[in-house]
């Protein structure tokens, strides 16, 4: 019962994912790329970096990278906290 | 052989590898085997990024998937148990 | 310095979080440090609110030459990440900072017997950072990043008591739910990026059309955020997480849940508001989800024996009111006469209910934490007669219970009244459900109060005393806020809630980055 | 107890991997890679040290390494570089680029062989993120290793 | 027969052989079999990556192959260390 | 001319890689498979990289473009790293297999029998 | 600052409400104070009279939380049976519910209904 | 002392990685400075891990011999090994066994070199090495009557080279 | 290959991988398998975003020692930057999940998710 219902939900969700995948614009031809063109053209003078990806990661979208570093920091704190010694409080 | 055909053949091969390794990761009863399949999945994913001209992402996936994720999984399995639950 | 306020809102708690692990074993110092940092953020958020309410939408572009340089010269697309702070964001930001401060204050005593506190406080501040980033940002991918920060920090905190198996169980459930939801959000963001080549919320909202791919993206975003904010029938993680988390984290975790609700509103009101035809459909979905949420939540709460779990189900049920109120407003968004007649008030009720609910539910969960602190159990069947031992806790609990049940003159009443009256205009059946829910809420809190606080004093609780001072201060502050907001609802409504509602309704203002372009 | 082969090879390869990681971190603005990738490679090198030694040796090796402080240092450095932009510009503004400070030389436009002394704040951020990532990932692997029970872990 | 097309053909053949190796990863009766297949797969893929870098004439992207060449054996060592005591070889 | 040289080198490399995969598929037990995988893949990759190095020298000679130096040296580094690491991995996994109790198929002699006091 | 909260069909004034509350409180107290003051503390009067049976212990007098609203829950037994069957606590179900609801919502949004 | 070894080794690796970047003998000045800084840091960090003696590890004679070995005898043996494996793969004629040899090497480095060479060359790979330096080798085709081989019978001239290079 | 359904082959692969990931999360009983499912989801979404930014015949967006014809024809950099962030997040999530799994095994003695449900009702 649970399995059948779950399978139904799963399949109906996947149909929409497939529909989205098929009806996207064709692979390899991005329609609007103003933002990325700007990055490619201006990265060398504004960020003075040859690697456009790095200049996007650390300059144009540097705030995302701060968030990424924070995520890693959070996860490390979480892992260390979850696996710490119990501190004598056993229940 | 021009670049276009070459690219699509690569895409098909990588697609086979991706789907095959992920199905393997799901189907294997032994967790170590599943983790090895995940390493192959990561390798195929990295090759896909590489072929799609994203070397930054490919290096990230390689650095994480080749050593660290496998190490983490194995240490976690070592701390728990490696047999899948009998269904 | 005023124009840098949005950046400081993130930078200050991040600084606190990054320095917290350096305190190693000095637990007192790190908790005081956290209280100071969260206090500073409260002040900053109030300053920000003053700026925004008087000066309109505030835009802060990261990495540009000056904070308001949205579009580079000669370009018509925004290229950098920006914060776009309107009244709704500020409203949520105030809730977040206030509740983090209260949580830090409460945690000072509540977890003092545990180890690993430097990481606990770091995660508390990181949770605050995640919420603040979510509510302030004007960039879709940035929203995803901060959603993940809030989710990971929250789930790590849920698993804080690692000597309990249940805590780890709840933690992995929460993490599973939040990571799957975030991944689907990322997928939807990817779809939108593929369509429009940009990630700025306002820019996408200006260009969004009505093809199938966009609707799938909207469906994914809607469902993911609905799951993260605990709408029935995707609410199962809420009681698990709220029950196992230390009571000091409950207030920020509540705000984290409602930050997802905020994101849901932002997506339906701002991102897809230009789609005229189908917004009523979204509104109806939201209202029906709201009704289901409030009814199923409250009926499940009636049969619970664990006090925190009971309150968690009430949290689900109260989320339904917000969904109902804002859903009613969304249904009539493109109908100006109805919007002026009752839509705006309905949304005001829903939004006002967010802060009201955060305040009194935090108060209630904190009293439950206080009960756990002195008795060591959360099972209602084992409690009894604690009113004489812990008078302040009992009074705080009474205030909170009265507020959540919508008794006048506490704050729950004002927002519930608005919701009743406006949802009656849309469909009377919705109101009936809302009122039944309110009655059942009162009933279940009578049960808690009777079994935990009333009755003869039991022998096993002979030596219990009132909880330490920081906890009492935290609870008293919240109880006072309950009464204050109940007596002067107009204060909050005029200063914060109606600007927030207007910010949601006037999406054209948001789409033009506050008139900058 | 590991075998002679593994021990000797680790001795030669560990510095190699660490240098390779540093290379990726430092050349983040020129070649593919950057803070996170290099940090991950660096952490893999340290994970190699963890796997090639037994528990006592690992404890001894990592006893004096201030992983937690390094992580906080990296994160705070990122924040500090970001806050440099508050002096007249906005948060995270690339203030060092084209300013003739260290890493501040301008980059010629178009295709070039790549000059190390460019990048502005990007290089600093790469280094800080790399520090942070290597400390963080290593401490994750290390904590998973250290909670292992004795009898389950032998070579 | 330009050199590029030679390299392309070689790369496709390498991937085909990698696919064959993956068969062993899928059917391999014991865990060491799968690990051996993983090792061979990684080596082959590193070679193929070098070829792709030469085909597109981009010097810098060969670093990815370097990363794989260096790091692949760490995973092998971890798995080997796991298998030593476990007696799951026959599983 | 250069095409023929490249074709020979690549053919050797690809051939040995294919041989490795066939050997991995055909051999009866894990130890013999390690023979196939380690030796043949390393040797095949050496020849493939040799081809790229030859090609990069060929392209470098006319106008001394620095990027072909990088391609050549990094390709060579790939193979050096592989030669350094591959035998160790093979040794570790073979030892682990023997220690976890897999006996060699059809062994005429097994000196390690009883060595690990199983 | 006005106390009046205007709603679509009326208004709400907490101050007015408080005044009425105090008024009715005074009235109630007046009625209460006219009662017969025969109750005295610290006498036999405070003991409950249970037909001569000994007084039960305090734990027994305490009303357990599980016993409150027993009738209500009993009346809605069928409803609760379904509801508690849904709350399995299995983390896979959480995701499956998400998938199902996502499919339904997307279906409605695309225009199926 | 060991600091110098690890420093030099790190520097060499870094310089190989960045070759071709500039005009000062293939390297640009910035790369050289960065290389020295990084080599100092890594060398300091790994001074206890890489406990090689300087005069042993950086003996030019050893390196020249090693290069000759790698290009000449080793490569030849490897080619032979591969043809051998190819033959086995195609025909399927195998007669495997695990044999023990005692090459009598004393240093860890020489043992490792020999073991790795054995792994990559004819029909053999090292399974186990014990404290006395005895190698347990899986031999894919044990000739009849050679179940207790001498090192020369198993792998020809490799032990001689290993002794010459690393002892 | 133009014109057929295979022009969107990477996207279809992404959808299939998403399906496999959701299947793993929804129907497998082992906790580590569930974590593996989440990782498959991460990989699928990452691949989707990178595939969005590909331009036919483009070169990697790096100017260092690039071939001369690369200057005007680079793939879009933004999706790659997004994917980098997403990969880090994936690692973080997996690590935390594994830590929780270890804790759960320590207290429950099993990794079967149908037995890990003390919290229900």
UniProtKB/TrEMBL annotation, chain A:
UniProt keyword annotation of Transmembrane helix present: yes
Entry's transmembrane regions: 65-83
Domain of life: Archaea
UniProt entry keywords in alphabetical sequence: Membrane, Transmembrane, Transmembrane helix
Domain (MrpA C-terminal/MbhE) ranges: 18-86
Protein name: MrpA C-terminal/MbhE domain-containing protein
From TrEMBL, chain B:
Major subcellular location class: membrane
Name by which UniProt lists this protein: DUF4040 domain-containing protein
Keyword entries, A-Z: Cell membrane, Membrane, Transmembrane, Transmembrane helix
Gene3D superfamilies: NADH-ubiquinone/plastoquinone oxidoreductase chain 6, subunit NuoJ
Membrane topology (UniProt): Multi-pass membrane protein
Pfam families membership: MbhD (PF13244)
Localization: Cell membrane
Chloroplast is among the record's keywords: no
Domain MrpA C-terminal/MbhD: from-to ranges: 17-80
InterPro entries named among the record's database cross-references: MrpA_C/MbhD (IPR025383), Nuo/plastoQ_OxRdtase_6_NuoJ (IPR042106)
Chain ranges passing through the membrane: 6-26, 31-51, 57-77
GO cellular component: plasma membrane
From TrEMBL, chain E:
Transmembrane segments: 6-23, 35-55, 61-84
Protein name (Swiss-Prot/TrEMBL): Cation:proton antiporter
Keyword Cell membrane assigned: yes
UniProt superkingdom: Archaea
MF terms in GO: sodium:proton antiporter activity
InterPro entries: MrpF/PhaF-like
Organism whose genome encodes this protein: Thermococcus litoralis
Annotated compartments: Cell membrane
Chief localisation class: membrane
Keyword Transport listed: yes
Pfam families: MrpF_PhaF
GO cellular component terms, semicolon-separated: plasma membrane
Membrane-related topology note: Multi-pass membrane protein
PANTHER family the UniProt entry points to: NA(+)/H(+) ANTIPORTER SUBUNIT F1, NA(+)_H(+) ANTIPORTER SUBUNIT F
Key words, A-Z: Cell membrane, Membrane, Transmembrane, Transmembrane helix, Transport
UniProtKB/TrEMBL annotation, chain F:
An annotated Gene Ontology molecular function: sodium:proton antiporter activity
Keywords: Membrane, Transmembrane, Transmembrane helix
Transmembrane residue ranges: 6-28, 40-61, 73-93
Superkingdom as given in the UniProt entry: Archaea
Pfam assignment, any one: PhaG_MnhG_YufB
Name recorded for this polypeptide: Na+/H+ antiporter subunit G
């Amino acid at each position: 019962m649970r399995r059948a219902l779950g399978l139904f939900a799963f399949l109906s969700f996947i149909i929409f994912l497939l529909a989205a995948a098929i009806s996207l614009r064709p692979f390899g031809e991005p329609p609007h790329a103003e933002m990325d063109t700007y990055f490619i053209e201006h990265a060398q003078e504004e960020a003075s970096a040859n690697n456009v990806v790095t200049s996007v990661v650390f300059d144009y979208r540097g705030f995302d990278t701060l968030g990424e570093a924070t995520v890693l920091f959070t996860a490390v704190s979480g892992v260390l906290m979850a696996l710490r010694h119990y501190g004598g409080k056993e229940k | 052989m021009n670049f276009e055909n070459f690219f699509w053949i690569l895409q098909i091969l990588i697609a086979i590898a991706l789907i095959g390794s992920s199905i393997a990761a799901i189907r294997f009863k032994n967790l170590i085997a599943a983790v090895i399949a995940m390493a192959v999945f990561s390798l195929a994913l990295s090759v896909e990024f590489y072929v799609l001209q994203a070397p930054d992402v490919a290096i990230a996936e390689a650095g994480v998937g080749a050593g660290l994720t496998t190490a983490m999984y194995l240490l976690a399995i070592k701390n728990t148990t490696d047999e899948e639950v009998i269904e | 310095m005023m124009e840098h306020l949005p950046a400081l809102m993130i930078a200050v708690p991040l600084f606190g979080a990054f320095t917290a692990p350096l305190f190693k074993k000095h637990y007192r110092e790190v908790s005081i440090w956290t209280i100071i940092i969260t206090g500073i953020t409260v002040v900053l958020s109030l300053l920000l609110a003053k700026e925004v309410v008087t000066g309109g939408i505030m835009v802060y572009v990261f990495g540009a030459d000056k904070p308001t340089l949205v579009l580079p010269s000669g370009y018509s697309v925004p290229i950098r990440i920006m914060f776009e702070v309107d009244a709704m964001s500020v409203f949520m930001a105030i809730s977040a900072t206030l509740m983090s401060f209260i949580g830090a204050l409460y945690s000072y005593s509540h977890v003092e017997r545990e180890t690993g506190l430097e990481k606990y406080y770091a995660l508390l501040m990181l949770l605050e950072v995640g919420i603040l980033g979510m509510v302030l940002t004007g960039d879709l991918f940035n929203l995803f990043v901060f959603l993940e920060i809030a989710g990971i920090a929250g789930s790590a905190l849920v698993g804080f008591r690692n000597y309990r198996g249940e805590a780890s169980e709840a933690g992995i459930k929460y993490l599973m739910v939040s990571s799957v939801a975030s991944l689907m959000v990322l997928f939807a963001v990817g779809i939108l990026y593929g369509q429009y080549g940009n990630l700025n919320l306002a820019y996408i909202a200006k260009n969004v059309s009505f093809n199938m791919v966009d609707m799938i993206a909207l469906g994914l975003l809607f469902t993911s955020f609905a799951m993260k904010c605990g709408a029935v029938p995707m609410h199962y993680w809420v009681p698990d997480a709220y029950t196992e988390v230390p009571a000091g984290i409950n207030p920020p975790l509540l705000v984290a849940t409602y930050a997802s609700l905020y994101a849901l509103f932002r997506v339906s009101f701002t991102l897809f508001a230009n789609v005229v035809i189908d917004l009523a459909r979204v509104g109806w979905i939201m209202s029906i989800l709201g009704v289901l949420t409030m009814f199923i939540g409250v009926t499940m709460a009636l049969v619970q024996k664990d006090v925190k779990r009971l309150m968690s189900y009430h949290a689900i049920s109260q989320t339904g009111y917000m969904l109902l109120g804002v859903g009613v407003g969304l249904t009539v968004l493109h109908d100006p006469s109805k919007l002026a007649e009752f839509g705006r008030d309905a949304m005001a009720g829903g939004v006002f209910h967010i802060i009201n609910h955060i305040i009194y539910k935090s108060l209630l969960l904190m009293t439950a934490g206080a009960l756990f602190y002195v008795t060591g159990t959360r099972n209602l069947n084992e409690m009894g007669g604690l009113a004489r031992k812990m008078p302040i806790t009992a009074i705080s609990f009474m205030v909170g219970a009265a507020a959540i049940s919508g008794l006048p003159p506490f704050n729950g009443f004002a927002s519930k009244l608005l919701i009743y009256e406006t949802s009656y205009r849309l469909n009377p059946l919705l109101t009936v459900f809302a009122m039944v829910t309110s009655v059942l809420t009162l009933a279940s809190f009578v049960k808690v109060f009777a079994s935990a606080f009333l009755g003869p004093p039991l022998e096993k609780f002979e030596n219990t005393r009132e909880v330490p001072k920081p906890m009492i201060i935290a609870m008293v502050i919240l109880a006072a806020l309950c009464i204050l907001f109940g007596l002067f609802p107009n204060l909050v409504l005029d200063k914060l809630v109606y600007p927030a509602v207007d910010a949601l309704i006037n999406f054209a203002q948001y789409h033009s980055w506050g008139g900058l372009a | 107890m590991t075998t002679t082969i593994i021990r000797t090879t680790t001795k030669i390869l560990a510095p190699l991997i660490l240098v390779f990681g540093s290379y990726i971190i430092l050349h983040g603005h020129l070649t593919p890679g950057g803070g996170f990738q290099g940090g991950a490679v660096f952490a893999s090198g340290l994970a190699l040290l963890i796997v090639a030694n037994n528990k006592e040796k690992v404890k001894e090796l990592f006893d004096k390494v201030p992983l937690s402080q390094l992580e906080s240092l990296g994160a705070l450095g990122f924040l500090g570089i970001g806050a440099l932009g508050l002096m007249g510009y906005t948060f995270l503004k690339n203030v060092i680029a084209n300013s003739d400070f260290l890493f501040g030389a301008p980059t010629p436009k178009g295709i070039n062989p790549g000059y190390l002394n460019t990048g502005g704040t990007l290089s600093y951020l790469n280094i800080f993120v790399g520090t942070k990532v290597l400390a963080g990932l290593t401490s994750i692997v290390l904590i998973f290793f250290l909670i292992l029970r004795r009898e389950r872990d032998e070579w | 027969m330009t050199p590029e097309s030679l390299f392309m053909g070689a790369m496709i053949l390498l991937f085909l052989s990698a696919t064959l190796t993956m068969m062993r990863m899928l059917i391999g009766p014991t865990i060491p079999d799968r690990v051996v297949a993983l090792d061979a797969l990684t080596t082959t893929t590193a070679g193929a990556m070098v070829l792709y870098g030469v085909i597109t004439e981009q010097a810098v992207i060969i670093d990815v192959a370097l990363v794989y060449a260096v790091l692949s054996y760490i995973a092998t060592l971890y798995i080997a260390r796991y298998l030593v005591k476990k007696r799951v070889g026959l599983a | 001319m250069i095409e023929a040289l490249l074709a020979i080198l690549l053919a050797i490399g690809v051939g040995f890689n294919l041989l490795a995969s066939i050997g991995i598929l055909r051999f009866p037990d894990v130890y013999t498979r390690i023979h196939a995988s380690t030796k043949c893949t390393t040797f095949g990759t050496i020849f493939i990289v040799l081809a790229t190095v030859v090609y990069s020298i060929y392209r470098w000679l006319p106008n001394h473009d620095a990027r072909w130096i990088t391609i050549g040296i990094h390709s060579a580094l790939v193979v050096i790293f592989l030669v350094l690491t591959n035998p160790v991995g093979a040794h570790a996994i073979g030892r682990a297999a023997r220690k976890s109790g897999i006996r060699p198929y059809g062994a005429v002699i097994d000196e390690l029998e009883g060595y690990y006091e199983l | 600052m006005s106390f009046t909260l205007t709603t679509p069909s009326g208004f709400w004034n907490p101050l007015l409400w408080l005044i009425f509350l105090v008024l009715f409180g005074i009235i109630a107290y007046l009625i209460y104070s006219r009662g017969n003051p025969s109750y005295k503390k610290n006498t036999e009067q405070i003991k409950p009279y249970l037909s001569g049976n000994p007084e039960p212990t305090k734990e027994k007098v305490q009303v357990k939380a599980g016993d409150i609203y027993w009738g209500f829950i009993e009346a809605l037994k069928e409803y609760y049976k379904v509801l508690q069957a849904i709350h399995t606590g299995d983390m896979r179900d959480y995701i499956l519910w998400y998938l199902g609801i996502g499919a339904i919502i997307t279906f409605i949004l695309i225009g199926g209904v | 002392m060991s600091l110098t070894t690890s420093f030099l080794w790190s520097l060499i690796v870094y310089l190989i990685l960045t070759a071709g970047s500039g005009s000062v003998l293939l390297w640009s000045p910035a790369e050289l400075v960065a290389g020295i800084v990084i080599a100092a840091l890594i060398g300091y960090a790994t001074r206890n891990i890489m406990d090689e003696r300087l005069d042993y590890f950086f003996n030019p004679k050893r390196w020249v011999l090693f290069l000759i070995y790698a290009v000449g005898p080793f490569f030849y043996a490897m080619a032979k090994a591969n043809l051998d494996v190819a033959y086995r793969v195609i025909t399927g004629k195998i007669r495997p066994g695990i044999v023990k040899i005692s090459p009598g090497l004393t240093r860890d480095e020489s043992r490792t070199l020999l073991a790795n060479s054995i792994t990559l060359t004819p029909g053999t790979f090292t399974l186990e090495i014990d404290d006395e330096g005895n190698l347990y080798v899986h031999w894919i085709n044990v000739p009849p009557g050679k179940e207790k081989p001498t090192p020369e019978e198993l792998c020809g001239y490799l032990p001689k080279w290993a002794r010459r290079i690393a002892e | 290959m133009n014109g057929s359904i295979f022009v969107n082959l990477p996207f279809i692969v992404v959808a299939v991988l998403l399906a496999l990931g959701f299947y793993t999360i929804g129907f497998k009983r082992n906790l580590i398998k569930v974590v593996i499912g989440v990782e498959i989801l991460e990989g699928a979404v990452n691949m989707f975003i990178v595939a969005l930014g590909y331009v036919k015949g483009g070169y990697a967006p790096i100017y260092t020692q690039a071939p001369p014809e690369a200057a005007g024809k680079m793939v879009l950099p933004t999706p790659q930057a997004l994917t980098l962030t997403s990969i880090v997040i994936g690692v973080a999530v997996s690590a935390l999940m594994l830590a929780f799994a270890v804790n759960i095994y320590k207290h429950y003695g099993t990794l079967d998710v149908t037995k890990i449900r003390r919290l229900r009702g």
